[in-house]
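hi!! sorry for the late reply, been swamped w classes. u asked for the two structures so here they r. pasted raw, havent cleaned anything up. first the sequence of the first protein and right below it the tokens
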Amino acid sequence: MVSPSPASDEAALRAAPTLATPAPTPAAPARAAALIAVLGALTAVAPLATDMYVPGLPSMSAALHASGSAVQLTLTAFLVGMVVGQLLIGPVSDGRGRRGLLLAGTAGFVLFSVLCAAAPTVELLTAARFLQGFAGAAGMVLARAVITDRFHGADVPRYFALLSQILGIAPIVAPVIGGAVLSLSTWRAVFGVLAVLGAALLFAVVRTVPETLPPERRHTGGLTGTFRTMGTLLGHRAFMGYVLVLGFTSAALFAYISGSSFVFQNVHGVSATGYSLIFASNAVGMLIAGFAFARFSVRVRLNTLLTAGLALSGAGAVALLVLPALTGTHLAVTWICLFVTVSGVALIFPATMSIGQNLGRSAPGAASALIGGLQFLFGAVASPLVGLFGEGTATPMAVIVLAALGAAAVCLVVLARPWQAHGEVHPGPGTR
């Protein structure tokens, strides 16, 4: 797709509300299923790489003769690399195509995982983690772009529901997998496992993922034209409204992920095993809500599901803040409130991704870059806030989660304006 000027880009962004991509042929269901499976795995690998080695941080600090803060910086470096990678790779793919960048990024992830495993100093490990995050970002950002290229109508929100479930679950199960690896070997083996996973994904991409953006649909004008398109997206009120809704909701989720262990173990006295079970049950809540979204998105408007998800999460966060003051601190109350909160998140994520990609369908790579980049940027900023404001009660986590969801609600009303039905995917008659 050619984008000769910012004005024409803006006109394209405001065009008809359905995705302008051909439907898969009737003979392609098996290929489509294989493609979605690989795209889902590509989406999972970077979140897995974020947290798999976390249980090994103390031993890593000792092995590298580095301080705890220096070792923790390797996590920050990975997140920064993942954000920068999405913001660069996504727009470039709109002009260069998806497949070549996806192959290069996946191969780079393998290489930099090996470098992480072999790093002799914390400084080299930090540099390798940044590059690993940058390369891993290719799978995340291009998976969304490929779905936008390849599918249309009701398929899009259903597949984005799957990707959002993966994004929500992968950071939760990653430390469990990492702990299992560490029970058999050292922290270096975690990066070895990631290298093997990356190699398997590279083989799967070669076999399964075709080029989904033919030359006639690519943007012209080189890098200048590519990033001018991103500037157009940044100036699109409704698109940025949905992106910010997703970003602030991600901040709420990351605040929960980083703070819940302290709340359940320090405040409520739950064992590490008990906390794992609670965390897993909340992950199940996200899965159930994600399946419900995929089912209802066929006949209920995405903006309706988005608003319902935000209301559900907000109600859970308000209850988490208010009920302890009225009834005292109880494990069951905290557990139920957080279950409700994260279940609502599982409705918000796929709705905002689907609507955002639809609004940015003239430049799916750039749209995916902004959606994913800001999602993880907001999450990275929110993660340390719970510890910064104290870990003796659930109040700091509740306040941060509620503030983030409140900001998301403001962006939804002021910028996205869901009653105007921006970016809706219309699967057919009977949608409400």
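now the second protein. again sequence first, tokens right under
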Amino acid sequence: MSKINGLAAACAVSAVALSAAACSSGTNANSGGSKSLRVSAVATDRAGTEAVIKAFKQHNAGVDITASYADTDQYQGTLRTQLSSGTAPDVFFAWPGNGNPGAIEVLAPTGYLADLSGRSWTSQIPSGIKPVTQVGGKTYVVPLTFVGIGALYNKKALDETGAKIPTTWTETLAFCDTAKAKGKVAFALGNQTDWVTQLVDYALVPTTVYATTPDFDQKMKAGSATFAGSGWKTAMDEYLEMNKRGCFSKDPLGTSFESSVSQLAKGKAVAAVQVTSTLNQLKSEAPQGTQFGMFPVPATDNAADTRMPGAAGGAFALNAKARNKDLASKFIDFLATPEAMNLYASATGNLPSIPNAQFTADPALQPLIDFQKAGKTVPFMDQLWPNPKVQQAHFTGVQNLFAGKADPAKVLKQMDEAYAQK
């Protein structure tokens, strides 16, 4: 997946330190023993990774696992260096689909990833996310979570403003007006952090584009559609309209992801358009007893049009040149079990990628569950983009929009140009 998984790093380490013992659990990082395993992941999924490692070790006495973590930018760069030099971990976090340097469509053609197609669990992967776990019809990752994007909201802050959860675009603007009148931010927004810039667009585009053109990605690939000539323009116009209306934090470009989370956790903001995995971080920062909910972000005045982004989230690949391939394979298969998926999903605030009766979802995630069941979720846009340059053009473009240096037409033209590059 995209840098949506690159939330604020819980344990940022330097690129050099990724394969070292710093910010890791276990010992003997370079050991190739039959009971030693090396695992790496993005820092934001550390809680989930450590939960499944602990469970695996309980089932496999004497196993020694070294786990290393880094923030998303550092992780992606270091992973590519390690893979090319033959020093990568046995099992590592990799993004489904395409769109960034750590995604499987970028890594698989190089021969760095082991083919997992023969595993029995691959048949259980839901059809909605199966395409982004495969390259050329072969499975290269085990997806652990189903992640959504929506407006996470502080129930106490909502009550204090008297605002109503919007179900239409007009109601969304009214929601902003009501919150502002009560001295609160309607939607906390940390556009100083580049990956956050995409989230509002990602929440709006499923409705402005995919509700009427569900095959938009296929048309883009065939060259019969463009960002500039689609509902992407509507979404960006609405994004800017929300900003002009005072929907967001006072200075989005001067607000970090961490600050936006604090605004929402403390009730200074009513909501924030965020990934579901932010929910656990909100809970950890909020006063005890604070309750949160979630609602899809409307983009038209017909509530039936509304769609939500929902996609495969945390995923792990097996190093084709793993030093301990047998144990690494066993760990990969364990990750596909309901036990591991439920532990990982609970720890990261998401849903398991393969639904099972043993999982109890956080009530705040019910809207995402309902939209998934109704077939009203759309994969994260970048997972189906042909290269990482499109996402970077989007990041930069949105920041330029908010800085007054570009308009939607210019940004979308740049995204189209990036899409056309190989």
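hope this helps!! also noticed smth abt the second:
The two ends are 19 Å apart (CA to CA).
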